[in-house]
């Protein structure tokens, strides 16, 4: 990680933010730096930092310097509210990129971001509850809702010829959202859920839940939870107890931490769904080349594409608005993300600001695809199927 990233990350962890000069324009970056998805975070911080660096190298933001001010949600609802309140009320940011987890994103939005009139764009929050937020047109995301991922996961399971599964999902916005959609789609397609358990986070043992889940004749255990918390513990304890040998998970479980904790051999028959990018996307290759040139590696990590795109879109919205007026930025976010307009891709900041100065419309198509927002700030998208490959994951299928 380069020096700039280290300084910004340290500021986020200490809760001090960054000090801006008179000609600086801040944007808020709300991330779950500590907590159950901490293992995901370093490359995502790099992705956000890269977007900011490219902007500053190609003319800056509003004629000055773009500054990323980080807030750490600690992976909790209260931590998210506290971090968001500091960003909007103390740092006075005009837009926030984040958060990542659905629960922290919604908590921050409802308690701090929406009341302050700040636009918010999440790269990864997938809960269906976000669709129905009373957000005054302020909350956006660039990944599809869990309603979509749950349906696609059900199709993937059926396509594998797996007709009976046990299911456990974490009792939060993320787990319930995908879990309930998966149940409906899988049973409608003819699958049978022989055992089901909604579980709580942060327990030391899930052996009692696993004993109940293993009583049926399930061919696999579907786990919808985070690898850094309950999901990883459930898989490890299921393997230790000899209760299940095949696991099916979603993006929260598609974490290299899971492979580190249980070993690749134990997961060789498992697979995972996760929001992904379109196949053979030149914009993705452009970002990955720039990312790896800057940081050496990591462009293929989960949600790098989405985090970069959401950050770049936030910066474009500020430039398009021509000021730090929050209401204008919310409107500008839709304008820079959606057709019609001249295409702009990752790293093409100089091109974008030239077009804006000429009064022309732009349409950002990113590494994760295009973001055509509906009236709820939602998008369609792509879901990938991933299998374990060495110490990482390999994508073997994309569903649009």
Q: What is the mean pLDDT?
A: 94
Q: Main sheet: which strands, in order across?
A: 7-6-8-9-10-14-15
Q: What share of residues are in beta strands?
A: 15-25%
Helix content: 40-55%
Shape: globular
The CATH superfamily label of the largest domain reads Response regulator
Structural class: alpha/beta
Main beta-sheet annotation: 7 strands, mixed
Q: Which series of helices and strands comes N to C?
A: HEHEHEHEEHEHEHEHEHEHHHEHEEEE
Radius of gyration, in angstroms, nearest whole number? 21 Å
Number of helices: 13
Instruction: Give the number of DSSP strands.
Output: 15
Give the C-level CATH assignment of the largest domain: Alpha Beta
Domains, number: 2
CATH fold name of the largest domain, please?
Rossmann fold
CATH architecture of the largest domain: 3-Layer(aba) Sandwich
Unreliable segments of 5+ consecutive residues:
1-22
InterPro entries: BCAA_transport, Leu-bd, Leu_Ile_Val-bd, Peripla_BP_I
Organism: Roseibium algicola
Protein name: Leucine-binding protein domain-containing protein
Family: Belongs to the leucine-binding protein family.
């Amino acid at each position: 990680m380069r020096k700039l990233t280290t300084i910004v990350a340290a500021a986020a962890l200490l809760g001090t933010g960054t000090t801006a000069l008179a000609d600086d324009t801040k944007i808020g970056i709300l991330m779950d730096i500590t907590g159950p998805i901490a293992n995901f975070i370093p490359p995502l911080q790099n992705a956000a930092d890269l977007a900011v660096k490219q902007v500053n190298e190609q003319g800056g933001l509003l004629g000055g310097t773009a500054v990323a001010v980080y807030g750490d949600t600690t992976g909790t609802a209260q931590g998210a509210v506290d971090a968001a309140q500091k960003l909007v009320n103390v740092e006075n940011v005009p837009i926030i990129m984040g958060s990542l987890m659905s629960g922290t994103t919604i908590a921050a939005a409802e308690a701090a971001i929406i009341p302050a009139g700040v636009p918010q764009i999440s790269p990864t929050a997938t809960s269906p509850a976000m669709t129905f937020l009373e957000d005054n047109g302020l909350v956006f995301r660039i990944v599809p809702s869990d309603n979509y991922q749950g349906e696609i996961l059900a199709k993937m399971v059926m396509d594998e010829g797996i007709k009976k599964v046990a299911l456990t999902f974490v009792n939060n916005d993320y787990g319930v959202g995908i879990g309930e959609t998966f149940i409906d789609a899988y049973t409608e397609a003819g699958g049978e859920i022989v055992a089901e358990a909604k579980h709580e986070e942060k327990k030391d043992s899930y052996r009692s839940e696993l004993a109940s889940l293993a009583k049926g004749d399930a061919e696999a255990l579907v786990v919808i939870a985070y690898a850094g918390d309950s999901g990883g513990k459930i898989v490890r304890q299921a393997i230790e107890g000899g209760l299940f040998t095949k696991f099916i998970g979603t993006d929260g479980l598609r974490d290299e931490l899971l492979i580190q904790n249980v070993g690749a051999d134990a997961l060789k028959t498992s697979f995972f769904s996760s929001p992904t990018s379109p196949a053979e996307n030149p914009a993705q290759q452009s970002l990955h080349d720039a990312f790896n040139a800057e940081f050496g590696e990591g462009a293929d990590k989960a949600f790098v594409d989405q985090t970069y795109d959401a950050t770049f879109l936030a910066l474009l919205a500020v430039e398009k608005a021509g000021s730090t007026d929050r209401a204008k930025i919310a409107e500008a976010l839709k304008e820079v993300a959606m057709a019609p307009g001249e295409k702009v891709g990752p790293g093409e900041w100089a091109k974008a600001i030239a077009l804006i100065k000429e009064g022309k419309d732009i349409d950002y198509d990113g590494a994760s695809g295009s973001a055509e927002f509906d009236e709820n700030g939602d998008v369609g998208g792509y879901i990938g199927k991933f299998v374990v490959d060495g110490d990482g994951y390999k994508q073997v299928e994309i569903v649009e």
